[in-house]
Every structure is written in C-alpha cells, then in structure tokens.
Amino acid sequence: MAKVQVLCGAHRSQRCAQIDQVMRSHWGRSLLLTPTHGYARVRRERLLLTGAAQGCWGNPVREFKDFVVHLLAMEGMHVRLLEDFERLLLLEQALAGETVAERVAALNLSTENSGFLRHLLAVITQLKQAAVEPEVFQERIKDGETHPFDALVATAYEAYQAMLASSNTYDVPGLYWQASLAAHSKAPRALQGIEVLLLDGFDDFTPSQLRLLATLSKHFDTIVFGINYEDVPNRQDLYTLSAKTLAQLRDCFDVEMVQLSSSAPRRYSEYAADQLFWRDKPVMPSDLAVDVRGVPCMDYAQETEVLARRIKKLVVEEGVPPEDIALVYRGLQGVASQLKRTFDSFEIPLRMSHQPNLCESAVGAFVLRFFEAISEWGTRARFGGAFCTVVARRIPGDRGCTLCAVNALCEDCRGLYRVGSAVATLIRASGVGAGGGSGGNSRVALFSRCGSLDATLVNLAGAYERGGRSAFQHRRHKVATHRYWMNC
After folding, report:
1. Neighbour tally for 404: CB within 10 Å
2. Cα Dmax for the chain
3. In angstroms, rounded to a whole number, what is the distance separating the alpha carbons of residues 64 and 332?
4. How far apart are the C-alpha atoms of 276 and 211, rounded to whole Å?
5. What is the pLDDT of residues 65-117, one digit of tens each?
6. Taking the CB of residue 293, how many other CB atoms lie within 10 A of it?
7. Using the 8-state DSSP alphabet, how is residue 81 labeled?
8. Using 50, 70 and 90 to split pLDDT, how confident is the model at 22?
9. Exposure of 420 by Cβ count < 10 A (0-12 exposed, 13-18 middle, 19+ buried)?
10. Residue 363 class from Cβ within 10 Å (0-12 exposed, 13-18 middle, 19+ buried)?
11. Which of 58, 241, 395, 476 gets the highest tally of CB atoms within 10 A of its CB?
12. Residue in 156, 136, 248 with CA at minimum distance from that of residue 199
C-alpha cells in the first residue's frame, strides 16, 4: 500500500514547486496527473524548461482521463469514449425499447422532454460512479417501499448498459470502472517502472475516480496530492469544496497532511487576487510593484483602440513578439466584431478563441441569404434553373446527371423553404448567442428541425459526392450540428 501525502497550499505557496521537486527526484519513475490537457501541457513545459530535467521515455505528465484510456489500451482494451450528447442519444434509443417505453408511458413521461432525459442520465451516472450494477440496483428496489420512478430507472439503466456493451463504447464513469477492474488483481502494464503517482490541480474527485485511485494505490510506493487549500480561519468559506475533497481523501487513505503557507503579495495583481473576497478589511502594503492600470472608456470602440495602441507600442517600440501578448475578456459576444475591426485597422495579428454567434458565422450567413434568395425568386423552376447553372459550372462530368440531382433537391424546395424560414427566424431571434433572451428555447427548437433538414442536405451533398461515398453519417452529423449550435 502506498504512502499518501497531501500538500495543501494556495497559488503563491510552494505546493507546485514541491511536487515538481518530487517529480525530478524520481524522474522516469514518477507520473503526474492533472484535470485538464492545458494544465498538463503547462506543467510538462515547466518541468522540462525550468527544472533542468532530462528527457524520458513516455509521457510523465498526463490528463487524468487520457491516462485511464492509455492504461486500458495497454491492457488490450481500445476505448471509444462517448461524448455527453452521444450518451443522451444512446439513452433515447434505449428508452425506445418496448419494456422501457411501457414504463415511460405509465408514468406519463415523454422522451421528447430533454430535461427528463438529462435527469435520467444523471441518475444513471451517479449509480455507475457508486459502482452499483443494474442487477444490484434491481435487487435493492425489490425490498421495502420504492418510488415508481425507481422501476423505470432500473429498466432504463439495464437497457443503457446493454447498448453500451453491444456497441463496444464507454461513458466516463464506465471508463474509470473498467480501469479499476483491470488494476484490481495485478499492476497494469502502463504502470511498469512507476513508483510515485502525483496529482495536482484538482478541486474534487468523483466517486469513480476515488475508487480507481484506491485500487491503484497498492501498485505505487508513494502518492502525492496537491490541493488548493489554506487553513486561514476567515477564508474557509472560499475553500469549501477543497475541504470536502480533503475529507474524502482522509476517508479513502491514511494521509499525511502538509500545510504550505503563501508568500506575501509583491505586485498589485497578486494583492487584488488575494483580497478580492476579503473578510477582514485589508491594508495595502506600500512596496507593491505597479502592474495594474485602470482606464475608463466610453464604449467598445474606444476600449479596443486603447488596447490596440498599447499593444502596438509593445510590439514596435519594446520589441515584444505578438504571440507573447494575451488579451483576456470575460466574454467576447459583444466585442468580438469590434475587436477584429480595430486590430485589422492597426495591422495587429489577432487570434480569438471564440465561437461566433450563429448569425455572424459563415454557416448562418449562408442560411439567411439562401432562404432570402428562395423567397425572392419565388417559383421553384426559377430557383432550380439558377442553382443548376451554378452547380453545373463547378462539378465536372455528366451535367444531365447533375441536373437530376438538382431536380430531386427542388422537389423538396417548398418543404425546405418552410423549414428554412423557421431556421432563419430562430437565427435572428437568438442573435445574442447562448447567453441572451430566449436563446435556449431557440436552440432547442432549431435542433428539433435539424432532423428534417438532414434529408435535404443529403440530396444537396449528393450533387457533389459523385463517387458513391456517404455524404453524411447521420449520428455524427447530428452530434456535430448540436455541438456547433450549443457553442454559438
């Protein structure tokens, strides 16, 4: 059984430095797990660039879920992990079975209700995280008083698990569950030569993650957890989640707790971050380095110009590479277009990590213009002729065959126009994106019409896909459409 140590410290403590030191002292025999890919990349680069650590075989820093996938792959189990929306589709398909459908109807529920599906999936997820198998849950609800919903959960859970098994796919709780089984009797191949396991950057752990860590603990000499936590009495409400995680670790392991104090702030930014949610009135030190500047602006146009001038000065006069400058906004929905115009006028290269509103995107603009053109052209014949002329110019080969494909599309033109008008209305109504107005209802309504558009899109793509290849795989297309729309 591994010796378990928990290093507690906030951002300015030596928590990360001590974990890096443990990594270096066991270089090639240690593994660091993080909650995200981005944080794994940052920690890996810091180890290699600032710690004088030599290169080693394999990947010494991994995101937790990727590590579990790698562990199973080394055991000969290649994982196909489902996304959340794919899980909803799978559950919806499971509820279409005769037995489950009868229970749904008996409770006056509807699978068309996305809230019901998400709630049912959340219940199943909790059961899987607690390692309660469908057969065990069936036995438990037979004894004592139960809610009518329990029988539906049991039947749906059994059908959902059966469909996962038949499709050879995994959800996230099942991924950790399978890894626990694989590591129960012997050390997995992925852990050969690894003596020390370190975990840093986690605020909490799911029950399935904790169960896996408990199983893996017998295959390591040492496990070190880094938890963002301070034992300052007047700041305990800020660390409620971390305190709960510490209690869970104490329940699972015999832990050694090490509390690391934070250094005093040296810059305005560090002081502001430290005192943002103060409980006792703070006293500002007099020797702080000034690295925060506030500039009042009338609107986004003035704000982006002020930023652009400052960035231009950094690049031209101070020689700072543009890729070393980061510009952070709380949200880009209202400022993205103005930011792009201003930076273009100042000739500043800009890369935004931002999904545009659907009405601002190329897809949305095409849909709006496409259906406006149909409404202006009026008759199907005029639209078909114009469209056929454009397509025939771009597609080599038999134009007669192309004309047949376009005519097939035009047969559905009236239905396409009706759906398209609704889509265009919804796009305009949800122009502020996911966070404004009735955008949520608009997204649901639009997505419910995506299935109606599939057949027309297949016909349209058929004009371009002349080699007999499938233009769309329905399920993947549906998932991609949903992902794009929900991010808009």
Report:
1. 14
2. 82
3. 30
4. 36
5. 999 999 999 999 888 888 888 888 888 888 888 788 888 888 888 777 778 88
6. 7
7. B
8. very high
9. buried
10. middle
11. 395
12. 248
Q: How far is CA 370 from CA 49, 383, 421, 479, in A?
A: 52, 11, 10, 23
Give the C-alpha distances (Å, rounded to integers) separating 49 from 32, 43, 52, 174, 368: 16, 10, 7, 37, 50
How far apart, in whole angstroms, are the C-alpha atoms of residue 64 and residue 188? 16
For 362-384, give the DSSP string.
Answer: HHHHHHHHHHHHHHHH-SHHHHH
pLDDT (tens digit per residue) in 449-463: 444 444 444 444 444
Residue type, 257: M
Residue with tokens 């749904």: 104
Give the separation between CA 69 and CA 53, rounded to whole angstroms: 26
Query: d(Cα 161, Cα 145) in Å, to the nearest integer?
Result: 25
Both tokens of residue 349? Answer: 């290269």
**CB contact set of 209 (below 8 Å; sequence gap of 6+):** 64, 176
User: Rounded to whole angstroms, how far apart are CA atoms 297 and 302?
Assistant: 6
136 Rama sector, left if φ>0, alpha if ψ -120 to 50, beta otherwise: alpha
* Residue from 4, 1, 57, 67 nearest 29 by CA: 57
Q: How far apart are the first and last CA of the chain?
A: 48
The Cβ of residue 190 has, within 10 Å, a number of other Cβ atoms equal to: 21
pLDDT attached to residue 198: 96
Q: Which of 395, 420, 422, 415 is nearest to 406 (CA)?
A: 395
Q: H or E segment at 85?
A: helix 84-95
